[in-house]
Specification:
Layout lengths: L1 H5 L8 H10 L10 H35 L8 E3 L4 E4 L2 E4 L8 H13 L4 E2 L1 H10 L11 H12 L3 H11 L1 H5 L1 H4 L15 H14 L9 H7 L4 H10 L17 H16 L3 H12 L3 H8 L5 H11 L2 H16 L8 H18 L12 H9 L2 H6 L2 H11 L2 H4 L1 E7 L5 E8 L4 H11 L4 E8 L4 E8 L2 H4 L4 H14 L2 H9 L15 E5 L7 E8 L4 H11 L3 E10 L2 E9 L7 H16 L7
Parallel strand pairs: 3-4
Antiparallel strand pairs: 1-2, 2-3, 5-6, 6-8, 7-8, 7-11, 9-10, 10-12, 11-12
Helix pairs in contact: 2-3, 4-6, 4-7, 6-12, 7-10, 10-12, 10-17, 12-14, 13-14, 15-18, 16-18, 17-18, 23-25, 23-26, 23-27, 27-28
């Protein structure tokens, strides 16, 4: 019952059950929220009140028993903090409760709480604050003293605990009414497991934990943490999702929660009276808090335009550092399994490249003396040199030397992030990617990312990241993959499609809580059209899409494959005859891929 009582879990009841109960209660969808979301919010509010009442009752009833019969030593010393506030028996208390009728004093007692680790508010203080939080002035410009206390809380070593206490007593929502609308708010979104306010507080907790972490894989984040302004970063995280209370999906105008949040926080930042630079920094982070994750997970992070877009949006290294930390905090608080070593790797890689770009460092290029190696490099596209180290280029060159006799060269290397990189070098043939996807799919291997570099002579270097290589590896698997690829390459395109498609058996279609969509972007990349597909996953989906693209005469230049919790979010960089897609190609492609996506979900569009 703990997750239900605390109101922290967004998935304690199935979506279908939530819908059924809300209909029984007579709740209806509104312009902003589903009836099930309204029902869950009401449930959390009521159970939270019950939880607080029971907690106070247990504390009052057990105090005398614990002291008398268990003989637990009690610290009877009294530490004077000010004329109004004291620490007695390890608890922070006040001389008279009337003191807390002053909003400035309310913020001051939480400042004292933040400055005294290990101490807690007395039960009487908590109950008084919770009962009188409704009288705390809202939407009025707070005094400079109250603002000073709040900013000191954000600079302290106890930010999460203090904000949690302020939220539980209702004070945080009154001091920041924009955040108050998020309390117990349930938004049904893919991947998200917690209510919006709980997600926000967990993001702050995870970020604060970086300062003391000794885990090796978090060292780079901890180092960046030491270079940012703490109060601005925590304030941005606290406000980053306030737009979710306003950006209803059923309104007349669809506005993203980042844009809505950016518009909403301006009034609050004005009330705080922050300096211009700090206000601009917070606004930037709220407006762009999903930019880094979106570029890393739904665009090719090796593409020069992706690096340029991130560096250009950040503008300076301070903003980039804060955005990197905010991205970690936000993603790690989505659900316990959302932050993975793979995501950490690609986010850090893109962040590092953008930081180098902001410092004015040129992306490296090989200083080549070997004439045959120089010829190999000149044959490959420019982005090949940008995306690969000199050592990798030399290795690819050695692998490519025997292509004429062996048809293809293949290597598999396990990576530090738990994935494996499959490199395939061969001559270009029609439908190359769907052939490779078919072979790997029959082996049960899951593709996370694919990049393709096609030289002017027709030499193709494929880099494919596999997420489950370790789990499925057995001795001889690499040889079986090589044999399967050679067989697929030797088959005519139409025959290859029929042979490869047969092993895939569609999974049972289940109801989902989102709408499938397909979008084509002709602005992001200067050379390619970018197609994003968001739909429910099934075995053979990637093969089916790539096969459909081939049948339409569309070439896949690179692909970003993300599959989690039965949801596929795949991005393809596409060309037709070496150029971006034209209007006719675009419409044919949209209709064809939408047909695939819509067949996987009930009510998909």
């Amino acid at each position: 019952t703990a997750p239900l009582i605390s109101g922290r879990r967004n998935d304690i009841l199935s979506f279908e059950l939530q819908e059924g109960v809300s209909r029984m209660l007579g709740l209806k969808d509104t312009r902003r929220f589903l009836s099930s979301e309204i029902m869950m919010r009401l449930l959390y509010r009521k159970t939270h009140d019950v939880h607080d009442s029971l907690k106070g009752l247990i504390s009052a009833c057990s105090r005398q028993y614990v002291r008398t019969y268990l003989s637990i030593p009690v610290d009877w010393s009294v530490k004077r903090i000010s004329d109004e506030f004291f620490i007695s028996r390890g608890e922070i208390t006040v001389r008279t409760m009337d003191t807390l009728k002053n909003p400035d004093k309310v913020l001051e007692i939480f400042r004292i709480f933040a400055a005294n680790p290990g101490k807690k508010l007395s039960q009487q203080v908590r109950e008084f604050l919770r009962e009188r939080s409704v009288y705390f002035p809202s939407r009025k410009r707070p005094s400079r003293r109250a603002v000073g206390s709040f900013l000191e809380i954000l600079r302290s070593s106890r930010v999460y605990e203090t904000l949690r206490e302020m939220n539980d007593t209702g004070v945080l929502g009154r001091f920041i009414p924009e955040f108050g609308r998020l309390r117990h708010l349930v938004i049904h979104e893919p991947y998200h497991r917690y209510t919006v306010d709980e997600h926000t507080l967990m993001a702050i907790r995870n970020l604060e934990a970086l300062k003391k972490t000794r885990i090796v894989k978090f060292q780079n984040l901890r180092d960046v943490m030491q270079a940012v302004r703490q109060d601005s970063l925590y304030l941005a995280i606290l406000l980053h999702d306030v737009g979710k209370a306003e950006s209803g999906r059923r309104g007349r105008r669809r506005m993203s929660h980042e844009e809505e949040g950016y518009n909403r926080i301006k009034a609050f930042l004005e009330r705080l009276g922050l300096e211009k630079e700090e206000r601009i920094s917070v606004e930037f982070l709220v407006k762009n808090h999903i930019l880094l994750s979106r570029l890393a997970l739904t665009r090719d992070p090796d593409a020069p335009e992706t690096i340029e877009q991130l560096a250009g949006a950040a503008g300076n290294e301070a903003n980039l550092n804060a955005l990197y930390l905010m991205t970690y905090a936000d993603m790690s608080a989505v659900n316990p399994d959302f932050w993975t070593d793979w995501k950490a790797y690609i986010l850090h890689d893109l962040y590092t490249r953008a930081a180098e770009r902001l410092r004015g460092n040129r992306l490296y290029c090989c200083a080549i003396t070997d004439p045959t190696l120089r010829e190999f490099v000149q044959d490959m596209p420019e982005r090949y040199l940008i995306s690969n180290s000199p050592e990798t280029v030399s290795s690819d060159y050695e692998m490519s030397r025997g292509i004429e006799t062996t048809l293809l060269s293949l290597s598999i290397a396990e990576r530090e992030d738990g994935t494996a990189e499959l490199s395939v070098i061969t001559k270009d043939v029609p439908g190359l990617f769907f052939r490779i996807a078919g072979v790997l799919g029959r082996k049960g291997l899951n593709i996370l990312r694919a990049r393709f570099y096609t030289g002017e002579s027709g030499l193709v270097i494929d880099r494919i990241i596999l997420s489950n290589w370790r789990e499925l590896w057995w001795e001889g698997l690499e040889d079986r993959i090589r044999d399967g690829l050679i067989k697929a390459l030797l088959q005519p395109a139409e025959e290859g499609r029929e042979v490869s498609a047969s092993p895939f058996i569609p999974l049972r279609i289940v109801p989902v809580r989102f709408e499938s969509f397909v979008e084509i972007d002709n602005e992001t990349s200067g050379e390619c059209s970018v197609m994003e597909v968001f739909t429910s996953d099934r075995l053979g989906l990637l093969y089916e899409i790539s096969s459909r693209l081939h049948s339409l005469g569309v070439d896949i230049i690179s692909a970003v494959i993300n599959t989690e919790d039965g949801i596929a979010q795949d991005v393809f960089y596409l060309q037709a005859k070496g150029e971006k897609l034209g209007s006719e190609n675009t419409m044919d492609l949209l209709c064809s891929v939408k047909e695939i996506a819509s067949s996987l979900t009930e009510g998909g569009e």
